[in-house]
Sequence to fold (239 residues):
Amino acid sequence: NSILKVTNLVKRYNGGTLALKDINLEVKKGEFIAVIGPSGAGKSTLLRSINRLIEPTEGSIEFLDQRIEKANKSELRKIRSKMGMIFQHYNLIYRSSVLENVLHGRLGYMGSVAGVFNRYKEEDKQEAIMLLEKVGLEAEIYKRADELSGGQKQRVGVCRALAQNPELILADEPIASLDPKSSAVVMDAIYKNCKEQGIACLVNLHQVDVAKRYATRIVAVKAGTIVFDGQASELTEEM
Ligand code: ADP
Ligand code: ADP
Fold:
């Protein structure tokens, strides 16, 4: 029941930085995993290699029995539709409404966000509204995304990812720009929904205490190498 298998992954950026050295990682269905490590360790490079926002240099990435690093454009689009992304800086379409942003996740990222209003069905809209209500955004549904606070924007980001009905959520420092209270609300929303729906999650976090609070499995990355992969309770101080 493994949904993701990363084997001997290497990433060397143009210019020479060896950001990932030899990463091996297997993720099972519904597993919630925190990826920790200092700034520059390679956490973001790892997540972005998995959905091929960046091209891996070497190695293989298998997701639901498909080889991501070999996928062509249309295969990649299909693969990505099963992977929800959550970004540190939200990456919402700020001229559009909260609802349109979530529908964009539901209907796929082809075409403009404004275009979603010609394509959605009533059930898509109801699903989007249900997700927004679950994270406490029922009063924000028709607001423009740029009217929201940071914590609210990230909750929209979470709903957009969930609206894809993904098998995997990749969250790259989702709370790094938020205050502690909003951070807890956002992490709770990610965790609860993933658990409820059996969605696996890889979440990059730089705070070890937050990682331990949510994840039973922790992967620690240092200088492009996985230095720990195991139970949160076994993580020692020097990681
Ligand atoms: P983290 O997410 O753990 O902070 P990153 O994956 O962002 O780490 O970065 C890993 C290493 O790769 C760092 O040394 C960083 O400077 C380098 N790096 C990241 N992005 C690029 C890029 N686009 N071009 C060149 N080097 C990069
Ligand atoms: P951050 O500011 O959070 O580090 P970036 O601004 O570097 O993120 O954006 C990373 C890339 O991901 C951008 O090129 C953007 O076009 C792309 N992107 C934005 N939203 C999504 C999404 N929902 N799914 C896939 N890719 C996306």
